[in-house]
Amino acid sequence: MPHVEDPSTLIQPGRVHRRVYTDPDIFEMEMERLFGRAWLFVGHTSQVPNPGDYFSTELARQPVVMTRDRDGKVHVLFNRCTHRGAKLVNDRCGHATRLNCLYHGWSFESDGTLAAVPIPDACASGFRKEDFNLARVPRVQEYRGFVFASLAKQGPSFEDQIGPMKGNIDDLVDRAPDGALAFDMGQHRYGYNGNWKLQIENVLDSYHVPFGHASTVNKDGVQFARREGDKDGAKVVEAKNENKTTTSWRDRKSYVTGNGHGWTSNTILDEGKRSSPAFDEYKKALVEKVGAERAEQILTPRLHNSLIYPNVSIMGLNIHVRVIKPVAVDRTEVTVYPVRLLGAPDAMNFGNLRLLNVTHSAASFVQTDDVESFVRSQKGLRSLATDWVDISRELGAEEPDRTQNALRGSAVGEMAMRAQYKAWVGYMSEVAQ
Amino acid sequence: MNTMVQKPMSAGASPTRESMELFLIHEAKLLDERRFRAWMELFAEDGAYWVPASAYQESPFNHTSLFYDDRSLMKTRVDRLEHPRIHIQTPPSRTAHIVSNTLIEEADEAKGEVLVSSSMMMVEYRDENQRLFAGRQYHRLRRVDGHYKIVLKRVNLINCDSVFDAMAVPI
Asked: Do A187 and B68 touch (CB under 8 A)?
């Protein structure tokens, strides 16, 4: 473990030390104490729909594979042969009766059990196959298809850590007339030369939108339409002054629940005018499944972005699920999954997909300007002249919201970032078990 | 800006490989000169620009794409590329598009349509970084009022499913 003095000294009320973004030793400590302990989003069960299917990814930079065994149970295993350590599954996803190591041919069942070792009579005396099953990620839990895992054997329970955000998962999943999602429409993958926390701060930052995304706003101060059935997006700046944020944008709220999680309230759009053949057909399908009253609740937007700290966000505007993967202190990769609403007409799912291409692909209109901000932040933070990064907006102005069981603040304040760093200090102050 | 631009071939006779190459060279030059609005005008009103995000992708309708712009999204893209506060183009990209190995795949005289494939490379330089995109592209062209218009431009990048740092300009 690299030497880092007490990391809690890097966080002060309303400000964080630049080293949390730039110091490689802090990053190593984050991988061990934060990503090594927190409940992390791994993937969705629909990525392994059938027995023998696998999906490989990384948790805290470590290769893991999510599999579905013969009995239909989902496992999260370390993607490393127990013999000499070769990465077992090399492609992102696929199907195999057994997982075979390329190097010496060891083969494993999809539940991780070692099935066979070639030339077994040369095994050392006392060699026991059961000692060489694939290592399992210690704790795995699923909620409505969302698979989370913790690399630590002990620690806060899934209910304690992720429980308060179940409603945010429900908000997305309930939009499907059949009440379930499928992650089967590919993904967008983008990377940037900057720290991972720049991305998770950004998803709950409404302050930046009129400036960071100026290029997506027309001369009337209105953003392009991002949802199927909308003619226009949100009005974010005044028509006569491109630097003046509109009252409707400024009045949005953000919420935090502890553990670093939070969300921002919905973008204000003219819901009554939302209509297109695809959207109308979708609405009809939803009403048929859940009834008019419930459909109305589901279609009344409540959330813009939700962050399930530390590695996944869910967007309620142009819907998707985004996974943040730290690679190095100054390198981050992000995967954005479109979600197929099961029971919705194909035209509606395509409408969502089509707009996600232009909001969150590596070549999109929205995300690219965010990425430029992250890269520019990482460059600016090389400056040694100032140690502190300011996150003090609306400091002390948050108030309890009992109906939401959360703290509420202005969406153009920085309460959500302060909440993330409070959780950060909690993780970083304890050694992983 | 260089005004000595090769005009898109005027169509009347059967498409020849040379005439198709001139069209592709003209398109590449518009992109390199950042004349994005003129580039957009090469597309038919029902035309689309597609860069799949996976190899052998069958459809843009059930899978993510790096780009899948109809004329309406293309216009939003071009408006943004011309916006003074597009941060990912501050400074702007400089590109060199190279088109080669051109083949006429199909020609339908009756419909006035032709499918042309070519190998492409785009070298992009921006903000101290240079990178390379390469692949094979397919242009489906339709004769409209004596000129060819793009019905579908599909670019199959060899690394289409990799992680990309932000991209702003069309390939």
From this structure: no
Q: How many domains does chain B have?
A: 1
Q: What is the pLDDT of residues A316-366, one digit of tens each?
A: 999 999 999 999 999 999 999 999 999 999 999 999 999 999 999 999 999
Answer positive or negative: Cα dihedral of A206, A208, A210, A215. Answer: negative
Distance (Å, whole) CA A322 – CA A202? 12
CATH number of A48-143: 3.40.1380.20, 3.40.640.10, 2.60.120.10, 2.102.10.10? 2.102.10.10
Q: What is the pLDDT of residues A37-57, one digit of tens each?
A: 999 999 999 999 999 999 999
For residue A93, the distance in angstroms to the closest alpha carbon of chain B comes to: 13
Tell me the pTM.
0.95
Classify B39 as helix, strand or coil: helix
3-class DSSP state for residue A67?
strand
CB-nearest partner of B163 from A191, A338, A369: A191
Cα(A276)–Cα(B62) distance, rounded to whole angstroms?
19
| Encoded tokens for A281 | 């057909």
Number of helices followed by number of strands (H, E) in chain A: 12, 26
Q: Could you tell me if A67 and A45 are in contact, meaning their C-beta atoms sit under 8 angstroms apart?
A: no
Average pLDDT of A11-29? 97
Q: Which residues of A touch B163 (CB under 8 A)?
A: 189-191, 333, 362
A-chain residues within 8 Å CB-CB of B66?
188, 357, 361-363
| Domain coordinates in residue numbering, chain A | 48-143, 159-428
Size of interface A-B (CB pairs under 8 A): 99
Per-residue confidence (pLDDT) for residue B143, from 0 to 100: 94
User: Residue B113: which domain range?
Assistant: 17-157
- Substitution target in A196, A372, A374, A376 with the highest count of B β-carbons within 10 Å is A372
